[in-house]
Amino acid sequence: MAAGEQQGRDYLQRHRIPELLHRLGALLLYHRPERPREFLIQALERVKAGKRAEGEYPYLMDQANLAAMFELLDVVGQGHITPAQYREALKTLGLSTEDLQFGDDVNITLDIFKDEV
After folding, report:
1. Domain ranges in the chain?
2. How far apart are CA 107 and CA 109, in angstroms?
3. EF-hand domain spans which residues (predicted)?
4. Residue-wise pLDDT tens digits, 27-76
5. pTM as predicted
6. CATH code for 3-52?
7. Is 63-116 a domain of CATH 1.10.238?
8. CA distance 108 to 81
């Protein structure tokens, strides 16, 4: 890999650009606004305000939505779901599953689910 390419990758990772783009893409797919460019501008303005602690960061779903989704996945009320169920939930929401670090023997609790989603 060329030095310039590595510097570019380091820059993107340092500023968390891939995560921001994934989040913006997920917001677009979830809300499907009539005017996507204006929607993205407003979302970026909320990110900027949230970083200055002047507003709320734009989340795809609130805590109640996440808890309801978890309950749908945890049909028998065990208090956890499998990594396979978690991956499917992310795919349903239009979120990436590429960077998941969970082994198949790990139980995903509601707290983990909320933090990760």
Report:
1. 3-52, 63-116
2. 6
3. 61-96
4. 888 889 999 999 999 888 877 776 666 555 555 566 777 788 888 888 88
5. 0.48
6. 1.20.890.10
7. yes
8. 5
